[in-house]
Amino acid sequence: MQAAETKGPRHVVVVTHERLRQSAIVENAIAQLQGEGFDVTVIDNTEAPDFGSPSPKVDPDTEIVLVLGGDGTILRAAELVTCTDVPILGINMGHVGFLAEYESFQIHEAIHRIAEHDYSIEERMIAHVDVWLPDAATPLGDWALNDITIERADRGKMVELSIAVDGVAMSSFGCDGIIVSTPTGSTAYAFSAGGPIIWPAVEALLLVPLAAHALFARPIVIGSDSTFSIRIDDDSTSDGWICSDGRRQRPLPRGTRVDIRQSSGRLRLAHLSDAPFTNRLVTKFNLPVVGWRDLHTPNTARVGTSLRGQGDVEDPDDADAGAYVANEAITSVTGGTDSDNARNDDARGDGACDVSTTAQSTEPPVR
Known about the structure:
Among the domains are: 10-118, Rossmann fold (3-Layer(aba) Sandwich), CATH 3.40.50; 126-264, Probable inorganic polyphosphate/atp-NAD kinase, domain 2 (Tumour Suppressor Smad4, Sandwich). Helices cover 24% and strands 31% of the residues. It has nine helices and 17 strands. The strands form three sheets. It has a six-stranded antiparallel β-sheet, with no helix packed on it. A six-stranded antiparallel β-sheet has the order 13-12-11-8-15-16, with no helix packed on it. The radius of gyration is 28 Å and the shape is globular. Residues 330-367 are annotated as: Disordered. It is found in: Cytoplasm.
């Protein structure tokens, strides 16, 4: 979805961390935005609202929210725009910055493209959670872009949970807790806990148990039409604790039921690149796209393959370097150069022929 052009005064909200507010990067970004004709509002300290309470929103005439920080800052900014039409664009000034679109050294280009409406919009699924406290007539509702965690309140004990999907009991166990993640959050806490990565376009929810004392405690993925129900058993040795996106949280007494499903709302992320999600995955996690088998097998050694997953080599020097690395790998395995190995092959003959030759016997055939 392409960004729509804005008529009239243009307003942008900059969300950053308070420790970055006086940095040269943030100050220069604000000055550049103002130079492009934007009215700029800066938010550098967003307190987490109470669980189940509505969070303040940006003005509806805001064109975009520019986040200067890491993924935690983006999650704070999400509270300002969730279920609105205002998109978020993240510039990574933290560590991994998986939700960020650009790195800090690209901020000048990013602002210029915002001014030119040169970006696209992707809508991300968010999760809705209803907390039914014991004897409550109505639930406490909240949401999450990344994940919802239910953990033990007493750090020295386990919390006993019963898991159901669409009202059908599936399992129960004692554990440290569980994570229910959206596809966006599958690369965060859920990934660290052993869950699979789910592509953002997939409409699904993921449940990952944390240190469950059970034989069947594997991650579970359900479709967007299904609902996870997690109940804290009455005889649990510990109460529970719920947290949405690492921010909005509250205690859960025994007997509480938590229902988690797909929300009808969406969060809009601005993109400056049409590169697929796989590129982001390889780059952010620095995945080794060339395996050890490729490096040590002469017939399959890849020349000029980069960590970005692109096999095409644009610079001839890079191609020479790649060929040198491949040849070195081949030499290290075979114990000689290609010409040496060719001479050795001539001396010992073809392997298949050798097998048939050695299989011949001088004894007469049995009739």
